[in-house]
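As promised in the previous annual report, we have extended the structural survey to additional targets. Below is the entry for 3-phosphoshikimate 1-carboxyvinyltransferase.
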Amino acid sequence: MKHYPHHLDLQAAAKAEGSVRLPGSKSISNRTLLLAALAHGTTRIFDLLASDDTHVMLMALQELGIRWEQVGETQQYIVHGANGVLPVHQADLFMGNAGTAIRPLTAALAVIGGDYTLHGVSRMHERPIGDLVDALNAIGTRISYTGEQGYPPLHIQRGRIHAQRMQVRGNVSSQFLTALLMAAPLMVKDEPVTIDVIGELISKPYIEITLNLMRRFGVVVERDGWQSFTVPTGQRYVSPGTIHVEGDASSASYYLAAGAIAGGPVRVEGVGKDSIQGDVRFVEALEQMGATITMGDNWIVAKSNGVLKAIDADFNHIPDAAMTIAVAALYADGVSTLRNIASWRVKETDRIAAMATELRKLGAAVEEGADYLRITPPAEIRAAAIDTYDDHRMAMCFSLASLTGTVRRGNTIRINDPKCVAKTFPDYFDAFAKIARNDLF
Ligand SMILES: O=C(O)C1=C[C@@H](OP(=O)(O)O)[C@@H](O)[C@H](O)C1
Ligand SMILES: C=C(OP(=O)(O)O)C(=O)O
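The corresponding structure token record, generated without further manual editing, is:
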């Protein structure tokens, strides 16, 4: 178990340089675990992410009677698929604050049927799930709320499914559509199942990850753009045998931004041109800000030679990595605007409010809108104690404020409650210490 201090003081660092091997992708890890559990056959998973979010998924699967083993002390796991059934019909499942666990599991459990409760940390009980529950109950599942309507905790009972066509709203979280897509092959009887998206779909690239992994497990979804998705009859999940989890592209964003802010080169290993994660497109935003990016199949390098340019862009397609841009904007030559990021308000914390509050502590002027942030950088970044709101990404992206001489030598950026990084990246600060050079002033 890692020991975490109450707070962490990051010394001002003049340069960022070096190489980081990324932990596994959270989005790929949790999807792969669930698909492997639902599949026919055994799946060997390489480089699974070790973190709170994957831990809750592994524990839930164990409680549901799915057999899995960790190979020694490695991140290799073997999951014995139960072929669309779950051996345990009654369970109380703790989901932490993992959206990628509770949303897909809710759909799968409601469709398979049983007597299950799902709950999490207090913030999880403030994160909406009503659009998913409405879509499922409309086809005959029996999901009810034990607390506030529209939010976990949930109680699932056995229903009678009559799925041919279903509808889901896509403007609060793409994870609702992901959950329905992953559960759809379990609903297919004699007729195909079609899911229609109502209104605008946000965070679209995450749907590509879902479809890609379903395909690897033998289910090919037919689609009409982002509007409608059909799972034909005669398909079920079959294990591909092995799956290698890519490095996490959202986790890569902090190190790549460090290379852009403080010279670089910084190299991340584990994601590159071949990635199926939308967050690799974070590098396009860094390039717009003036960084130089080079990419191989499985690695990315970021470097720069001077002040970053301000950016004004739509970040709906990369909501997680966009937080890194908000902090990089402290180093830009003018006012930056991050648009179309309303989903930030319903994640680990209200990220628009939290980001505005903490950027102001560093001296930035910040305008906060319902779905945007406008950031005017300070002449000089002030030393400050940053609150992290139990949000791993707040802790990780604010570490970047310790870079370059803009924080005067000897000043520190204090990160309060750094242990929250365990949600997706328990060793984050160890890797950051290796690339942040404070011996070069
Ligand atoms: O499907 C996924 O793996 C995810 C989808 C995104 O959520 P939204 O669709 O709610 O934006 C993202 O923020 C989250 O970290 C992971
Ligand atoms: C929004 C996030 O997580 P979740 O999968 O819990 O939605 C995130 O990791 O930034």
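The two ends are 35 Å apart (CA to CA). The chain is about 30% helix and 25% strand. These points will be discussed at the next consortium meeting with the crystallography subgroup.
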